[in-house]
Amino acid sequence: MRIYIQSNTDELPREALESIISNLDSLNIDYALPKELSMAYDLEVGSFDINRSDYIFVIGGDRLLLETLLGVRSDKPVVVPLSGKVSRGFFTIYSYEDIPDLLTDIIKGRFSSRVIPRLTAFIDGDETPPAFNDIVILNSKSGKLIRYTLYVNGEYIWRDTSDGIIISTPIGSTGYSLSAGGPIIKDAYVVSIVPINTLIPSHKPIVTSMDSEILVSGLSRGEYVIIIDGQYREAISSDNVRVVKSRTPIRMLDEVYRGGGALDERLSKRISPSLGKDILKGLPPSAKYVYRVLEYEGLLTFKELVARTALPPRTVRHALRILMDRDLLKKMYLDKDARISTYKINR
Fold first, then answer.
1. What are the beta bridge partners of residue 4?
2. Are 133 and 232 in a shared domain?
3. DSSP assignment of 249-315, as one string?
4. Residue 268: is its pLDDT beyond 70?
5. Which of 81, 116, 151 is the last residue of a domain?
6. Model-level pTM?
7. What is the Cα–Cα distance from 228 to 160, expressed in whole angstroms?
8. pLDDT band at 170 (very low <50, low <70, confident <90, very high)
9. Is 62 a catalytic residue?
10. Which pLDDT score, from 0 to 100, does residue 290 have?
11. Which of 35, 50, 221, 275 is the most buried (most CB within 10 A)?
12. Cα 36 to the chain's mean position, in Å?
């Protein structure tokens, strides 16, 4: 068995990592660490590619998980999201402190895993990293519109002018896509296509099969960017982007003992209770998106919000101002540095 441990010094203290390594050694389990982590703690450990592992332990928040998944190009490893010292992600079921018991359960086969489909985009024949949540196309200049033509399986759908377009997996449907007016996808093997603030009222979100080929064409070369899961950004040097199902889905630990269902329950909880209260009615999509991110992840600084939403700083600042004016957010300050503002939902 091979286990790749992905984390950083903020999330995984040295003493905790040494304890995990000792446990792995006692069980004769091969393991590897990212070079940055082993160098930071001056540890001599073995090394192998993350895609050659059987399990990937991601210790930290959702951002670290999404960054890690961009580099996973094999459907062999089972991804195990674990909360770290600082962060707890949406998909985390256990903490790094639970690793000894978790290893016992894995060795004895007392767990289930879920196969989660992903999407891949092709630009001029070059493949982007696969998307776990969504693929977004925006203008590279904040506030400017994009124009594109949409085809699904070769069939012309529309010519649109909007702030952008979101192509979302079922997992990603409760994220950015939802805040832009997209549908919640549950128990269905489909993709949603959502125009962002379209100027044409008849253009509504579309749901199509996960096996469909989606073509976004008629793009202005060099003016637009593609964003994968809010973590990867690339200028679009072509006049079209082709999106298809990725050849490598993600296998993720669902739950030990229970035989499935835990992920479904967590996805249900991700659908915010605020949806029924109309508290976000009339807000621009950027403000809704910032609100959703804070709902899912809790207390965040301005820089963290910019990183997690992949929105321009000016857009995030404007969204925060709107939410603060509606008394939907609280502004707080870090104890360790009163100069750094943090934001949280005002419940």
1. 32, 56
2. yes
3. PEEEEEEESS-S-HHHHHHHHHS-GGGGGTTTTT--HHHHHHHHHHHHH-SEEHHHHHHHH---HHH
4. no
5. 116
6. 0.78
7. 21
8. very high
9. yes
10. 87
11. 50
12. 22
* CA–CA gap between residue 147 and residue 159 (Å, rounded): 7
Give Cα 187 to chain centroid, integer Å.
19
DSSP code of 118?
A: -
Rounded to whole angstroms, the Cα distance separating 129 from 149 reads 23
Q: What is the per-residue pLDDT across 61-92, written as a single tens digit (0 to 9) for each?
A: 888 999 999 999 999 999 999 999 888 777 88
> Of the listed 10, 30, 62, 75, which one is catalytic?
62
Domain region containing 182:
119-245
Q: Which CA distances in Å does 310 have to 128, 142, 324?
A: 17, 11, 20
Identify the pLDDT of residue 205: 95
Count of CB atoms situated within 10 Å of the CB of 120: 18
Asked whether the predicted pLDDT for residue 340 surpasses 50, the reply is yes
Q: Evaluate whether 217 touches 149 at the Cβ level (below 8 Å).
A: yes
Using pLDDT thresholds of 50, 70 and 90, give the confidence band for residue 270: low
Query: Is 26 part of any domain?
Result: yes
Which residues partner with 146 through β-bridges? 162
Q: In the block, which residue shows the tokens 């030990």?
A: 256
Determine the pLDDT at residue 260.
42
CA dihedral 130, 131, 137, 139 (to 10 degrees): -90
Q: Where are the alpha helices (DSSP H) in the chain?
A: 14-26, 35-40, 62-70, 99-107, 176-179, 262-270, 285-297, 302-309, 313-325
Same domain? For 18 and 36 the reply is: yes
Query: Using an 8 Å Cβ cutoff, are 93 and 261 in contact?
Result: no
* Domain end call among 96, 116, 136: 116
Q: How many CB atoms lie within 10 A of CB 143?
A: 10
